[in-house]
Amino acid sequence: MADEIDLGANPENGFGPEDLGNEPMPQVAIITQYVKDLSFENPNAPGSLQVQSQPRIDVNVGVNARKAADDVYEVELKISAKAEVDAGAAFMVELLYAGLFGLKNVPEEAIEPFCIIEGPRILFPFARRIIADAVRDGGFPPLMLDPIDFGALYMSQQGQVGNA
């Protein structure tokens, strides 16, 4: 028989009905995740696969969010990477990965930070794996992207907007 845990209001667990308030609790759900666009180019193959020097890799990350329906938001994570060697481009990969998030009873002022910080943070590990697999399947060692602090990026962007 499974143990039951009641986190509802009762004096035994340390809070009563007055501590819950009348506000409904915020609810967040991941509805689905999906690849919207994936592109891999190896323009100088097979020569680019024989280069022994370490490539210079330029990675760009962008986040976009929009309301898709009532209480549903689409968050897009766009990652592009270009590897160059002295002989030219080794490879280029671009991924547009998205997720639908259900947000219910979330305060209006918390929706944008969720969509720009938490949504991409949830999506990133999946997008990272897709990028690594695409690069590996293109004949190169997998490109393992470093973790990204979306909170710091958001705060930096907010600072730039405030100074504009």
Can you describe this structure?
The protein is α+β, with helices and mostly antiparallel strands and 164 residues long. It has one domain: Bacterial Protein-export protein SecB (Roll), CATH 3.10.420.10. It has 3 helices and 4 strands, in the order αββββαα. It has helices at 17-20, 108-137, 150-163, and strands at residues 27-41, 56-69, 72-85, 88-104. A hairpin with a 2-residue loop joins strand 3 (72-85) and strand 4 (88-104). Helix 2 (108-137) packs across helix 3. The longest helix has 30 residues, at 108-137. It is elongated, with a radius of gyration of 22 Å. It starts with 16 loop residues before the first helix and ends with a helix.
Quick recap:
This protein has 164 residues and is of the alpha+beta class.
Task: Jot down its keywords.
disordered N terminus, single chain, Bacterial Protein-export protein SecB, alpha+beta, 4-stranded antiparallel beta sheet, 164 residues, elongated, 4 strands
